[in-house]
Amino acid sequence: MTTTAEPTTTGEIGKARVRKEDQRLITGRSRYTDSITPPGTVHIAVVRSTIARATITSIDKSEAERAPGVFGVYTAADLGAEEVGMPCAWPVTPDQKAPQRPVLAVGRVNFSGEGVAVVVARSAAAARDAAELVEVDYEPLDPVLDMEAAAQDGAELVHPDLGTNVSATWVFDSAAAGTGADVAEAITAAEADSDSVVVRRRFRQQRLIPAFMEPRSCVVDPTGEQLTIWAATQVPHILRTMTTVTLGVPESKLRVIAPDVGGGFGGKIGVLPEEMLCVLLAQKLGKPVKWTETRSECMLTAHHARDQIQDLVMTAKSDGTITGFDVHLYADMGAYLGLVGPGVPILGAFMFNAIYKIPALRFTCSNVFTNKTLTDAYRGAGRPEATFAIERMMDELAVELGRDPMELREQNWISHEEFPFTTVVGLTYDTGNYEQATQRAMELFDYAGLRREQEERRRSGDPVQLGIGISTFTEMCGLAPSRVLGSLDYGAGGWEAAGIRMLATGKVEVTTGASAHGQGHETAFSQIVADKLGVAFEDVEILHGDTQVAPKGLDTYGSRSLVVGGVAIVNAADKVIAKATKIAAHLLEASEDDIEFEGGRFTVRGTDKGKAIQEIAFAAFMAHDYPEGMEPSLDSDAVFDPENFSYPHGTHLAAIEVDTDTGRVTLRKYVCVDDIGTVINPLIVEGQVHGGLAQGIAQALFEEANYDDQGTLVNATFVDYTIPSAADLPSFTTETVSTPATSNPLGVKGVGEAGTIASTPAILNGVLDAVRHLGVDEIEMPTTSQRVWRALQVAKGRSPQQTPSDTHAPGGGLGSVDPHSGEPNNPKGEVQ
Q1: Average pLDDT taken over every residue of the chain
Q2: How many CB atoms lie within 10 A of CB 279?
Q3: Pair 432, 675: CB distance under 8 Å
Q4: CA torsion 527→532→534→536, rounded to 10°?
Q5: Stretch 377-397: mean pLDDT, rounded?
Q6: Using CA of residue 291, residue 296, residue 297, residue 298, what is the dihedral sign?
Q7: Residue 311 Cα distances to 327, 365, 534, 748, angstroms
Q8: Residue 10 has what pLDDT?
């Protein structure tokens, strides 16, 4: 059963409204980019390298140019785009090495899937067919694939002209920053103190593929001097600006529209070479140009995510008090730098201390080039990696000390009486109550009862062992404030814009720069405006995703839509009310100070004289009678730039069963209680949590992008790369508690990334908890049954028998191959 605590409410905020968007989305009336084909449209297909690293010796276009329906085949030289480089908006250090990422390869290719040429044809099918006829001769070079080896002196170089494979090394040291003690001293002291412990671990965050529902797509229509771009993007405003930066098209001549977008999860935050190709070709040909990738193209070339090596050192007193935490990361950037890719690990830097009072912290991250698809933001962007590290280390410390892992966490976390609390990295957490969320989660989970069952299974030698996984997390979300982002050299601000238009008939149009890709903005924002202005929910229309309709904005990522964009809407509504108050006072022949506004009605204090906001809107429209010196309009705009991040938190608990004969892992029960501040719509919250859990659990159990030793992605289809379906997951038990944020008038904290951030370590901690007493202390993600079985054999002192290559998809341990997952089944023929 799934439960979500729904606050008692008489207004719209807190009401479980069914989403407005769903009517068109589930009836097929939605309009995605691939649905848009202006008259005269030509289609493109990209010729992609099949080799990870090579010199291009020749390109023969002749046969493709003769193919039916083909208008032309172009290289970068043909388009005059040899010097065009894709933007990177986050130089994390002044000396960051940033190779030019071309729109099409010039002279060499640096990852399998990189574009070499582009075919223009009458149809998408004709373009794809002709692309296969382009013959490219390569002189192969040895690919650089191991990020740690690539970072060493003398390594083969991905980009020889840079002189190194290390793009940047970014360091935060609490002692140097003046926010905490010295980590080196804490480690030295702990090593010399018999009353202290030092825990050293290495964890691997495997490479993931965002795998959003809708592949990427772009249509560019040149009309006179104006270019209209439709794109399956999370960032229409940023795409407009970056198109100007990249190609020099005046921003005033660009209109970018993100229609319905089928998911993104950070995977559609980039500015794409294919989008720039569509612009270049539309300008060159004077025709609308369209590109929609195939699913295999998407998985091969859309940016990947995570891919870190984490070397961690935690020091603590023998009583469990943490004294220091040292973090060193290698982060695989792939062959080039993405739009915000270099900064993704840096976002995590501020969350390695999590909810704990850690007095000393040092963070070092080396961003490394390899001959793989570039990495960039993915749901959580740096925060899941940080949460995984600290929550795994808390379990490791508990094992070292022989402590209950929940008690150890409680000993070190920030108590609710200590808020606001300034952390070791200098962030100020405004509100929180970890005790409340944890207590409720443990009640729903039956923590004590499951611990008793676990002990009984261990005593009886049950072949199916029970593990309990814990993750108590917080995150910084609402990517802002601008000043903080500026201090990190981020190439944009963190503000968001909104506008409210009061129509003559009393209806309301709201423009927002927060561009939705499935989150339910149209519903949640309508609820906020309905309560604020006292109008009917049905009378509010939310307009977004079009830079001509909502000209200002910084778009959607980092759980910022509500905590930044929603507050901008509130501020615009306040301006509407302030204007309407003046007109109401004039019409009611009263002082402004005597006008009260509640439930959509302006009244004179102490009387029954009043007018509805709709009447005021009509009066402003008529402009027959309004105050001197006032414009006859209630329309208002606002830009909100918060002074702090928001900090949702929660406790996630997982009951994991592991069959020690086969390695089969079963997720039996999952409970989470999240504090996301004020809940606007419980139904939307529940959906966001469920989706986030699925993605975080998938990292722990199912997903990994695998390359062979030649740099070829070997699982670039859903046959090989497994994402979970409903059948692979249990019903979740979810609830919310609330300590409203003080950083914004709504008291909201954000929810879009919480489930993904918290769930991965909960699962892995549970898997290890089930088998640690058998001698298994580490299993790499994803914890497939094959990997679990192998770890158990090693722990028993046996050599695991040779098996077919582990595809890292779910399935059994050894034996025949499961036709669904492509992975060998276990000896008993069972599948997960």
Answers
A1: 94
A2: 21
A3: yes
A4: -20
A5: 97
A6: positive
A7: 6, 10, 54, 35
A8: 79
